[in-house]
DNA sequence: TTTTTTTGCTAAATATATTTAGTAGATTGC
DNA sequence: GCAATCTACTAAATATATTTAGCAAAAAAA
């Protein structure tokens, strides 16, 4: 257990002041007119003894923790864990670390966690806001903490966000089903006012209206059990004699598949929102509206870092196109 | 943007010293003989103004960051993202935060990340060690940083670990296939000396030897492309005319399913290690050896917190039983 | 009454950096 | 030749807590 080297040890060893060492280590040698000779001497010595500044002391003084807070709906959902992986990689490349947590659509938990992260003085937030978070989000803004919303946003508060073009994605998916000759097409969604859900509903409606056919909409409770959800999905599909179904999230589609498999109901044509390993392998393979995680996370981190470094002059609100990936489940034989 | 309240503000407002406030806030009022009256007065005031100590200053002074470092193989793998979710929840309950990252079986990246986390002075590590990390793990131990290995361990270094009983899980799975009347049973694994892979091989071997039948073993490279893996799996299964296959990881099984689906090869009987949403829904549904994530993470956090708080008197090495969940894929019709 | 102990609290040191304000000496300007 | 400017640094303040060592007054013991 070797003792940590301090900046004062370096100063003492080289017979110079702590200030000088600090300037050199923070790339202010030129600005502060430290001679090249001394700069080199310090840098060489620092390298030799492998000095690393204490991040805590540094953060305490500068107010920058180089930590970002990532709050997603559920890190165990493959969509979000994929997002988390991309974000993590990009953040590390830029010298930031990520602390994360799942909010599980629990308003109380979310508020507590955001407060906890603020107490920890994260340099910025990435949040997929669940409902009821208007005040909290607004509070973050008021405290001037850099923030980017993700996957959905809060219309009543003007913030940066990066989301997918859910309305268009949903429209294209529905149109695809309509053009396949399906008449009775249902949408399975959630009782949720989150923007992504509203947009997916809107897109579905727009396509249905365009084709002048009746719409069938079933919303499930966020907190209903898997068994309840499955039963409701089955009923909805069977009772309405649906030809095709658009699922508003990947896990709704998974629930749907389970429900229909269990009851040996023959599968209607279907499209799901968001990719899932299952979908490529399922028999039949499942058509999806896929979000461009690569681009979403790139813009996300880019926006957040820009805001942190003060380079962002105005609010940045991006909508990234989705891609309809047609597989077997939506093709009429 | 209201200004932060400092401990000195409180002291000033109440006309007492900073020391006294600090004692009271750190539950040392009794020990330091602060009067009950004053204690209450301070606590009430703190509550009123909503004072929260600056974590950075606190950490700098005490050396405790209340942050744990979680290093997993791949956070996008559903097994690990599930683990991450459980760990996160338990950690927060105990007042700890998690910074995480994926090591992607990249030795260099892993070493860099561990060093980074050490520089950040995490209070403890949770690591699924990839190969070549003996020295780094040993280094963590030498620096007296609390550590629990997970999913696999490093035999050459004596550390805490929590792993599943992979040997037994593999043995049971193989035996189950043997008892189903399958003769030619193959194991698909990885070129890896990690303990969990060795144990899964051992368990397979033990069962095969017990039944006195020839074993078929195929190992894939960690870094081979999906296409390569798939081709090799297909060849292995077809060339050896296998009746059944045991896959040593969930993603190998997924690759296998993709490979066999693409080439319309009829599916042999199969069992996979680790659960995956896909497996319940696949047709046929896939039999798995399931790890008890609930118990694994409970023991994990419990052990780590015990070590951090100095309550752990000796190294703790736990092996948790797996469960064989029999589904359609392994049952002989 | 004097000494000892206890009570209830505080001043100053500490953790480890960054940053502001300033200084001594050398050089330049006029 | 003397003021003004520049060069190359540094002392001290700062960020915000925790912790050690110690002090004055009150109570108890002698």
Automatic annotation (TrEMBL), chains A, B:
InterPro entries: HTH_LacI, Lambda_DNA-bd_dom_sf, Peripla_BP/Lac1_sug-bd_dom, Peripla_BP_I. It comes from the Bacteria. SUPFAM superfamilies: lambda repressor-like DNA-binding domains, Periplasmic binding protein-like I. SMART domains: HTH_LACI (SM00354). PROSITE patterns: HTH_LACI_2 (PS50932). Keywords: DNA-binding, Transcription, Transcription regulation. Residues 5-62 form the HTH lacI-type domain. One of its GO terms (molecular function) is DNA-binding transcription factor activity. This is LacI family transcriptional regulator. It comes from Sphingobacterium paludis.
């Amino acid at each position: 257990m070797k003792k940590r080297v301090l900046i004062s040890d370096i100063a003492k060893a080289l017979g110079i002041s702590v200030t000088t060492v600090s300037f050199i280590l923070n790339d202010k040698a030129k600005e502060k007119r430290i001679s090249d000779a001394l700069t080199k001497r310090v840098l060489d010595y620092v390298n030799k003894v492998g000095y690393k500044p204490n991040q805590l002391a540094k953060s305490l003084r500068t107010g920058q923790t180089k930590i970002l807070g990532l709050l997603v709906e559920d890190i165990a959902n493959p969509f979000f864990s994929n997002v988390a992986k991309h974000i993590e990689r990009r953040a590390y490349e830029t010298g930031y670390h990520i602390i994360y947590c799942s909010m599980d659509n629990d308003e109380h938990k979310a508020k507590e966690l955001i407060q906890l992260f603020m107490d920890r003085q994260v340099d910025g937030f990435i949040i997929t806001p669940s409902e009821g978070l208007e005040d909290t989000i607004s509070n973050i803004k008021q405290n001037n903490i850099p923030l980017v919303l993700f996957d959905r946003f809060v219309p009543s508060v003007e913030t940066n966000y990066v989301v997918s073009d859910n309305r268009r994605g949903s429209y294209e998916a529905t149109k695809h089903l309509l053009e396949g000759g399906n008449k009775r097409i249902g949408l399975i969604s959630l009782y949720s006012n989150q923007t992504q859900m509203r947009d997916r509903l809107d897109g579905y409606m727009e396509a249905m209206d365009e084709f002048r056919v009746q719409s069938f909409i079933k919303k499930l409770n966020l907190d209903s059990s898997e068994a309840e959800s499955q039963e409701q999905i089955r009923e909805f599909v069977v009772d309405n004699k649906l030809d095709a179904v658009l699922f508003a999230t990947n896990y709704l589609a998974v629930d749907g598949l389970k429900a229909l498999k269990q009851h040996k109901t023959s599968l209607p044509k279907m499209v799901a929102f968001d990719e899932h390993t299952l979908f490529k392998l399922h028999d039949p393979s499942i058509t999806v509206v896929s979000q461009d995680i690569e681009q979403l996370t790139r813009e996300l981190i880019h926006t957040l870092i820009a805001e942190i470094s003060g380079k962002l002059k105005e609010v940045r609100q991006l909508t990234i196109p989705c891609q309809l990936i047609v597989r077997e489940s939506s093709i009429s034989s």
